[in-house]
Design brief:
About 10% of the residues have low confidence. The chain is mostly helical and about 240 residues long. The protein is rod-shaped and about 95 Å long. The chain is about 75% helix and about 5% strand. A three-stranded mixed beta sheet has the order 1-2-3. It contains ten helices and three strands, in the order H-H-H-H-E-H-H-H-H-H-E-H-E.
Length: about 240
Amino acid sequence: MDMMDALIAGGWLMVPLLGCSLLASVIIIERLWTLRARRIAPRGLGQEVCQLVARGQVNLYWLEAHSPLGGVLAAGLRNARLGHEQVRARLQEAATAVIHDMERFLSPLGTIAAITPLIGLLGTVVGMIEVFAVIVSGDGASRTADLAGGISRALVTTAAGLTVAIPALMFHRYFQRRVEDITVRMEEQASQVVEYLAHYPGELVLAERRADEAHPGPRGDERREADGRTAPRVTPS
């Protein structure tokens, strides 16, 4: 039995199963591309931010564009003048938004994993009802095609539902675990920056936004000096 024969044998219940299969495939591919740890929370960014703070070269706009973790750290640095408790609160708020974005589409994927076996079970029930209807009619021997069609629908829809549900459930659990791992990595690096700020003796220098600045390095500082601009200084309380 090829794919088209299976779709025909399964009847109309194969349509929602096929739709769930396509939707789950799209979500899985999109989440595999989006939930990359090196894109969301690259290793070493917290240490790099601490080094930039020490050199007075923190460019918040570069940091925000760097990665979602960079946006979280920038939110904390912007509020350094409010004290370390406020820095932690701002970091938590920004991290919550990033985590919410990472969990996008996981709920629909979990729903697909839950309902597709039920759709397959419904197909089984419908198929068996057709079989028993033929048997009760008394001419089951002359209607073997109808009997076979009911049994085929019962088996095909169940198999199709499980075929969609098993990978969807596996990837749903996998993505949940990946979100947890990335969250832990973000917390570690954010804590590293907070601890560094708590023991930072000088004034925190935050670079101004420049359209032509691509990196918060010495060249950006030289251009600011040439333009007669000074970076705002924030003293952590």
